[in-house]
Write a structure and sequence with these properties.
Layout: E1 24-28, E2 33-38, H1 50-66, E3 70-75, E4 80-82, H2 95-114, E5 118-123, E6 126-128, H3 130-136, E7 140-144, E8 148-150, H4 164-171, H5 174-183, E9 186-188, H6 189-195, E10 200-202, H7 207-215, H8 225-231, H9 234-249, H10 258-270, H11 274-289, H12 292-308, E11 319-323, H13 327-338, E12 342-346, H14 350-368, H15 371-380, E13 381-383, E14 395-398, H16 404-414, E15 423-426, H17 433-437, E16 446-451, E17 460-465, H18 471-483, E18 487-492, H19 499-516, H20 520-530, H21 536-543, H22 545-559, H23 568-575, H24 614-632, H25 638-649, H26 658-665, H27 667-681, H28 691-694
Length: 696
């Protein structure tokens, strides 16, 4: 009975059984409706490229000849309508080539928009970028309830380039459409209907009826006529554009992220004329794609794809057991449940378990934004104080405090309970895996899975190997990371692995600067202007001064003089319980939301201490540590090293990664600068021998 209420397979109308021709399937039904279904062969998702649009133009020729009563365009892919434009087509292309491709695309979508037959886009799943621009060229858009719509181009240093800038602002609420393009965020079908981006929202099983209703004019297009009329006047757009620039500047400086400002300029100047804005869009897009920012952000896109491509198959993991219901363990468990895994969460005490479930509920609400999905995820997250899930789990992840003896004791207790083939993983951020593996009867199935905090936002997982791990374990752990919608970075067990080894010198140097009397607000401000998501002083507070001190001293012990010493006053702060965000007091005073109370940089006295080498003192030791890791084989791929630092620390994405930044700046210049800093500040700035290999 209940199965009758479930969604059916995708409604493809007459095209369901039609023969595939290139990227499309097409057929006319009994009501003379032309069903045109996008189904890019060999891909799990559709992308909009030159071939797709060229073939669409041929179908438009047939439509003009056959004069159907209507045209329905939708996707045969379960994942969604289309994931956007194929970025590969722009790689290596000249500005002229790109402008030519875009002009051709505009002509095709203009032809679609000008058809006499009513055109209806049926949207399910992801409808992004070029896919949404295709849908906007239709007269109406019917969205299935699960649809997610957006313009992510700004993440690539661009704005929409196939008519999205003017069609979205002409058809939807102009300010809401601009916000969608400026943020790059996706919205659900309900929100899209509210702002006028789609005209109806239905369940998949009602798509056929909705198409029929659209044919008979029983669905009225969503109208924002009053707003469109108001913003057809330039003074109204200028006023709104001023607010948009102000809000954008809070997150994206114009000199490093020009795309949102170019979009605002485009709309302010030409938003009252579709034709003028179309021409402006073509010129603006072609200019942006040649910018250094866009090239680097496109590089970041491909780094993400490369890291996802490290997956070699399925992990075989269905049941996850997490040991330790602290901040990290609880969020790892909640995220795994969100991704569809059955999860048991164990801890020796009930209090942290209760806090973990409460935190999971809050995180899932924020991420899923759907009460039913939140409920389903929580149903998969099972408190397990007795550890009954250990023997049933396909992977057991230990996430207890960084104490070697404690972890070994836990392994000795649980290893005999593991089922055959189960993986034993540790979330350690610093302890050597060979030391942790001592005493294990089967170290071949032991691996490090180093998550980053907060798990729900940080995309990286370091896959930490050791001499006795099996290839199968490494492969399955990598596959599992991708199944968690995270990006794997394979590293070898070494002090700090890759990310902490690179990040800690940045944080430690900031403390030395504070000790020298340089205002902490100035240090953080310069780092943020360089492109870091958070200044190093604030980052110390966020991580916890006790944690920062512990990891720093551990790295210094293992790396020797190449790692900076910790100021004595920091130890005193930790002893006094001033630990940063977790106690409300640290290097900064923090409010009840953990936000640091900073003095405005402009208010700092002219006579306050400064250092012209401030940024190089922060960033170059980070680069030096990454170069050392490459030389030592901690990580073997420069691209993955760049990706790990971007997705694990937020290293300025518009710079394309630290190694990319170093090569573009010039290895010789960096080595010379480090030698100069060494003369001035000490041995910690000694250039690593690995810089020589980057000269090649």
């Amino acid at each position: 009975m209940l199965s009758a209420l479930q969604d059916r397979a995708l409604e493809l109308g007459a095209a369901r059984l039609a023969e595939q021709q290139g990227n499309w399937r097409a057929a006319i039904d009994d009501d003379y409706v032309y069903w045109l279904v996008l189904d890019c062969p060999g891909k799990s998702v559709n992308t909009i490229d030159r071939d797709v649009l060229t073939e669409l133009s041929h179908h438009i020729d047939h439509i003009i000849d056959q004069k159907p009563s209507a045209v329905v365009i939708r996707s045969a892919k379960v994942a969604g309508f289309a994931a956007g434009a194929d970025i590969n087509q722009f790689v290596g292309a000249t500005t002229g080539d790109i402008r030519g491709m875009l002009k051709e695309g505009h002509l095709v979508l203009d032809r679609l928009a000008d058809l006499q037959a009513k055109t209806i886009a049926v949207i399910h799943g992801h409808c992004l970028g070029g896919g949404l621009e295709l849908a906007l060229a239709c007269d109406m858009r019917i969205a299935v309830k699960d649809a997610s719509l957006g313009f992510p181009e700004v993440m690539l240093g661009l704005h929409p380039g196939l008519g999205g800038t003017y069609r979205s602002t002409m058809k939807a609420d102009p300010v809401e459409a601009m916000t969608l393009m400026l943020t790059g965020k996706s919205i659900n079908a309900k929100k899209a209907k509210a702002i006028g981006l789609v005209d109806a929202v239905v369940e998949e099983r009602h798509v056929g009826a909705a198409v029929d209703a659209a044919l008979h004019n029983d669905i009225e297009p969503t109208s924002h006529g009053v707003k469109h009329q108001a913003f057809s006047l330039k003074p109204a757009r200028t006023l709104a554009a001023k607010q948009m620039r102000k809000k954008t500047a809070e997150k994206a400086p114009k000199d490093t992220y020009p795309a949102p400002y170019a979009l605002i300029d485009l709309w302010e100047e030409y938003g009252g004329s579709e034709q003028a804005m179309q021409e402006g869009e073509l010129s603006s897009f072609a200019k942006l794609i040649e910018s250094e920012t866009s090239r680097n952000l496109v590089r970041v896109f491909f780094l993400r794809e490369k890291m996802r491509g490290l997956r070699t198959g399925k992990s075989g993991v269905k049941h996850v057991h997490v040991i330790g219901a602290g901040a990290m363990g609880g969020e790892i468990a909640a995220w795994a449940a969100k991704q569809g895994f059955r999860v048991t969460l164990g801890d020796v005490a009930l209090k942290p378990m209760g806090k973990a479930i409460k935190a999971a509920f809050k995180m899932l609400q924020g991420v899923l934004k759907d009460p039913l999905k939140v409920r389903d995820a929580l149903d998969r997250l099972i408190p397990d104080t007795d550890g009954l899930g250990i023997s049933r789990a396909d992977i057991v992840i230990e996430a207890v405090p960084e104490k070697l003896d404690l972890k070994r004791k836990i392994y000795a207790d649980i290893e005999p309970k593991l089922k055959p083939g189960a993986i034993l993983a540790t979330n350690t951020s610093a302890l050597p895996l060979p030391d942790l593996a001592e005493g294990l009867s089967d170290p071949s199935r032991f691996v490090g899975l180093h998550f980053f905090n907060p798990v729900s936002r940080m995309q990286l997982i370091e896959i930490v190997s050791h001499d006795r791990i099996s290839e199968e374990t490494t492969s399955r752990a990598t596959n599992f990371a991708v199944e968690l919608s995270r990006l794997p970075a394979p590293v070898k067990s070494a002090p700090g692995f890759l990310v902490n080894r690179a990040l800690l010198p940045y944080m430690a140097e900031a403390l030395i600067m504070v000790d020298e009397g340089i205002p902490k607000e100035r240090i953080d401000d310069r780092a943020e202007k360089f492109g870091m998501p958070m200044g190093p002083v604030e980052l110390n507070d966020q991580v916890g001064l006790d944690v920062a001190l512990d990891v720093s001293e551990s790295l210094r012990e293992r790396l020797g003089g190449v790692f900076p010493s910790t100021p004595g006053w920091l130890k005193k702060m930790v002893e006094d319980g001033k630990l940063g965000r977790k106690t409300g007091q640290g290097l900064y005073e923090l409010d009840d939301k953990g936000k640091p109370q900073k003095k405005p940089v402009e208010s700092l006295k002219d006579g306050s201490k400064d250092d012209p080498d401030l940024i190089d003192r922060l960033i170059l030791p980070m680069l030096n540590a990454i170069v050392a890791c490459l030389r030592e084989g901690v990580i073997t791929d420069e691209d993955v090293a760049d990706g790990a630092m971007i997705f694990g620390t937020g290293f300025a994405p518009f710079r394309g990664g630290p190694i990319n930044y170093a090569k573009k700046r010039g290895v010789d210049e960096i080595v010379a600068k480090m030698n100069a800093l060494k003369e001035k500040h000490g041995e910690r700035f000694t250039p690593d021998a690995g810089w020589d290999r980057l000269r090649g």
